[in-house]
Every structure is written in structure tokens, then in C-alpha cells.
Amino acid sequence: QLDPVRSLFAQSNNSGKEAQGQIDALDDSTNVIVQEFRQNYQQLIDLTAYNDQLEILIDRQERKMVRIEQDVARISSLTRSVMPLMFKMIDALDTFVELDVPFLIDERRQRVQGLRTLMNNPDASPAEKYRKISEAYEIENEYGRTIEAYTGKVSPDDDRTVNFLRIGRIALTYLTTDGSKGGYYDLNDEVFLKSTGSIRRSNEDGLKIASKQAPPALIQIPIYKDK
Q1: What is the end-to-end Cα distance of the chain in Å, rounded?
Q2: Which of 38, 109, 172, 188 could form a Cys-Cys staple with 224, CB 3.0–4.6 A?
Q3: C-alpha torsion 131→132→137→140, nearest 10
């Protein structure tokens, strides 16, 4: 009489074990889902914070882009105003070189021509063009407070190579290589005149000083012919 009861109890026990196994499996599955939820929720929080930061950065970038566009517009307007000024500066420099004492005349003319070529170069920026023009002006300014010895020709028609002495912009003299003949540029008549013996000796001393072959000393320099 107890067998049916035992059988029922065994079946009930087996069913309970199966149910418990299902509960355990469900609990494990629930734990996995909860863990995934927590991870996803944390990622959502992180992404939300990241997006908020990106929005701030994007807003700043957009405002910066607006400022840059405004600056570019102002620069374009300024460039249109500066370009004619730079051409005028080159023309003024060209005129100055032609009217000045004719020292290093070929070199200075080439410098002016180089500036004109640069102005027609589309790859050169306005800043570079202005810098080169300023450098040319600075070079010309420097000539007025320095002395220099160099070789060259008195005129294109004269094949002789002579030694020139430039003292600022107030004197330009020369001596032939053998020292037998010399001359100076007359600032009044704007022509080269022949030097006397004493002037040639002073010129020779000046060339040594300019070439740093002799210490600085007082020398006599011709500026213009006595009237």
C-alpha cells in the first residue's frame, strides 16, 4: 500500500529538483541580465557625459569658426588696401635708388626688380611681400651709416675694374687697382671727377680702413668740387 505513496513522493521530489534547477538557471540568467543592464546603464551615463562635453566643444568650435571667418574677411579687406601701398613703396624705392649716389647700383636695381617679381608671385603671401619690402628699406637705411669697400666699374663704357670707397651717402670715391688714378662722385654735378694726389692718398687710407686692414682714423674725403 505504501508503494504508490513512495512513487508519488519520488515523482514529487524529482519535480521539485527540476523546478529548483529551473529556478537556479533562471536566477543565473537574471543575474547575467542584471549585470549586463548595469554595464549598459553605466555606458549610457558615460556616453551621456561625453556627449554633453562634445556639445560644449562643438559650440566653442562653431563660435571660433565664426570669429575666424570674420578675421578672414577683415584680412581680405586689409590685403586689398595694403597691396596698392606696397606697390607705391616699391616705386618710391626705385625712384630713390635712381636719384641716390650711384654706389652698388646694379645690386640695388636688381633688389627692386626682385620685389616687383615677388609682387606678381601668387604663391607668396602678403606678409612675405611686405617683409621683403621692409628688408629692402632697412638695407637702404643701413647704407647711410656704414662705410664699405667694393670693386666695380665707374661706368658701363669703362672696362676698368676699380676699388670703390663708400662713406655713408656723403662720399663715393674710387682708385684704380694700381693706385695711379682715382676719382670721386660730385654730389652737386652728379658726375665722377678726377682726384688730386692728396685725395688719392686719403682714398687709399679709407679703403684700408673699410677693408679692416687699418684702424679707424680721420681721412679727407671729397664731396663736391669747389666753385
Answers
A1: 162
A2: 188
A3: 140
For the chain (length 227 residues), average pLDDT per consecutive 10? 58 62 71 81 85 86 82 68 89 95 94 95 90 95 93 85 92 90 89 84 88 86 68
How many other β-carbons are positioned within 10 Å of the β-carbon of residue 128?
A: 12
174: closest CA among 158, 148, 154? Answer: 154
pLDDT of residue 98: 94
Q: Is 19 helix (H, G, I), strand (E, B) or coil?
A: helix
CA 125 – CA 118 distance, rounded (Å) = 10
Q: Which of 120, 114, 79, 121 is closest to 93 using CA atoms?
A: 114
What b/e readout covers 150-165, taking b as 16+ CB neighbours within 10 angstroms? bebebeeeeeeebbbb
194 beta partners: 183
pLDDT at 19: 63
- For 149, residues 6+ apart whose C-beta sits below 8 A from its C-beta are 163, 164, 165, 166, 206, 207, 210, 211
Please give the sequence-ordered ranges of beta strands (E in DSSP) within the chain, or none if there are none.
147-152, 162-167, 171-176, 182-186, 191-194
**Residue type (1 letter), 59:** D
3-state SS, 127-149, equals HHHHHHHHHHHHHHHHHCCCEEE
